[in-house]
Design goal:
The protein contains three helices and 14 strands. The chain is α+β, with helices and mostly antiparallel strands. The radius of gyration is 43 Å and the shape is elongated. GO terms for molecular function: phosphatidylinositol-4,5-bisphosphate 5-phosphatase activity.
């Protein structure tokens, strides 16, 4: 350190400083030597990359008439647990011209509205098998149809659909993943739409005719009922109306 003296403060000083900097090349070399020589570190790294051996019972599923399809995921490893997660990679809708449809990625939107998968994730113990249920969910409501025809623009069409789902398998402590792919197809029946809402009903007016009565008797009964009704109106007009008037006007 070099000091310059002065009769007045502050005193000016000149410092010489060395700043340490990490050499990335040397650091990587030292890290590699530690991994090669340390058995405990090598064992931990190997464990983090281990994925238990697993099998999926099918590669293609066809859904019809809202049925449930069950497939199995088996953990073939006898020592480690296997974690599974089922995701939808994409979906497509059959084109009217018969050309092959394009798979549209689902990304983070999950499963389509028409597809239900239970359970979608979990753990499988060593040597065990888990059952996965796939169900076609019909989310139509009667309010969306008039005479069996979808009326809202957001209604799902009734064309055949296909979804590509992936089963990701990892170890309980691993970061590596093994993937199985399953194609799920849904075939819509010709009459998949619900019945029309509020079908027209023809009401027949009730008939007062009794089969056992003669026309003359029915006519006489009508005249008698009409005469009695007129007498009641006349009596009400002559007596009760007058009494009501007296009650309101003291």
């Amino acid at each position: 350190m070099e000091v310059t003296e002065s009769d007045h403060k502050p005193v000016r000083c000149t410092f010489s400083v060395d700043i340490a900097r990490v050499d990335e090349l040397t650091r990587r070399q030292e890290y590699g030597e530690i991994i090669e020589s340390n058995e405990e570190v090598r064992s931990m790294l190997k464990e983090s990359c281990f994925v238990p051996d697993s099998t999926v019972s099918t590669e293609e599923i066809i859904l019809e008439n809202q049925e449930n399809i069950v497939f199995q995921i088996t953990n073939n490893c006898e020592t480690s647990k296997a974690a599974f997660e089922i995701l939808c990679e994409g979906q497509s809708t059959k084109k009217d011209d018969g050309t092959k449809p394009e798979i549209i990625p689902r990304a983070s939107f999950g499963f389509p509205l028409w597809l239900e998968v239970l359970p979608a994730n979990g753990l499988i113990k060593p040597g065990e098998t888990v059952d996965i249920t796939i169900h076609h969910e019909d989310f139509y409501t009667q309010e969306e149809f008039v005479d069996g025809i979808p009326q809202n623009w957001w209604c799902e069409d009734t064309r055949d659909k296909e979804a590509v789902i992936v089963v990701n398998i990892t170890g309980s402590t691993s970061t590596e993943t093994k993937t199985h792919t399953i194609n799920v197809r849904h075939r819509c029946p010709a009459t998949s739409a619900p019945p029309p809402i509020n079908p027209p009903v023809t009401l027949t007016p009730p008939s007062n005719n009794m089969p056992s009565e003669a026309p003359s008797k029915r006519s006489s009964k009508k005249k008698e009922a009409s005469r009695q009704q007129q007498q009641d109106y006349a009596q009400f007009a002559s007596t009760e109306v007058h009494d009501l008037y007296r009650m309101r006007c003291p």
